[in-house]
Design brief:
It is a single chain. The chain starts with 7 loop residues before the first strand and ends with a helix. With 185 residues, the protein is of the alpha/beta class. It has a single domain, classed as Serine Protease, Human Cytomegalovirus Protease, Chain A (Alpha-Beta Barrel), CATH 3.20.16. Strands 1, 2, 3, 4, 5, 6, 7, 8, 9 and 10 form a 10-stranded mixed β-sheet that branches. Strand 8 and strand 9 form a beta hairpin. The chain has 3 helices and 10 strands; from the N terminus they run ββββαβββαβββα. It is 22% helix and 40% strand.
Length: 185
């Protein structure tokens, strides 16, 4: 999905990989390497490295937005880094921003549970399954969203961890597989 500035977006459900604490700290994964999203794309390990290095050298940061709206920043990402699993983010919803307070309430109620990255593709290839393999991305922002494209990047309730949510991930994968089977029938 591209916006008016040519940025693409990848969505990730929060909760299984993201948690929100009482003091509005959000922590988890905004993108997972090797996971096929609903658009058929797969992000390769290391895809964000050059972008994160460049941002750091320039003294800039990845923005935290509400629903990819550049007019609605709702917090700050204090830490954005790659590890062996994916793109890890940790930040704060800003209490002085009304939309951030609303976002915290919506997350707590389970009404919002998605993350989405805003980026430009620098380098991509096709893998052996015919999927677009994203090799290098220019990361601009990570948003809280209603509908994530990558089901495995979610925001969780307080105390939820990736380990305690494994069953929900497996159940979601089973339902997704069943949905695809029924769609083909």
């Amino acid at each position: 999905m591209q916006d008016q500035w040519g940025l693409e977006h990848k969505f990730c459900r929060l909760g299984e990989e993201i948690s929100v604490s009482e003091n509005a700290v959000i922590e988890g994964y905004a993108s997972l390497f090797g996971s096929r999203d609903r658009g058929g794309d797969v992000v390769a390990k290391g895809a964000y490295g050059a972008s994160l290095t460049k941002l750091g050298k320039e003294g800039r940061a990845v923005k935290m937005l509400w629903q990819h709206d550049p007019a609605q920043p709702i917090g700050v990402w204090d830490e954005v880094r790659e590890d062996g699993k994916g793109l890890y983010v940790k930040g704060r919803l800003l209490d002085g921003v009304e939309r951030a307070r609303e976002a915290a309430a919506l997350i707590a109620a389970g009404a919002i549970d998605g993350l989405s990255i805003g980026y430009r593709t620098v380098k991509a290839t096709k893998n052996d399954k015919g999927q677009r393999l994203l090799m290098e991305l220019e990361l601009w922002e990570v948003s809280l969203v209603t509908f994530p494209m990558l089901p495995s990047a979610r925001v969780g309730a307080k105390g939820e961890t990736p380990e305690t949510d494994q069953t929900l991930r497996e159940l979601a994968a089973a339902f997704e597989g069943a949905r695809r089977e029924m769609a083909q029938s």
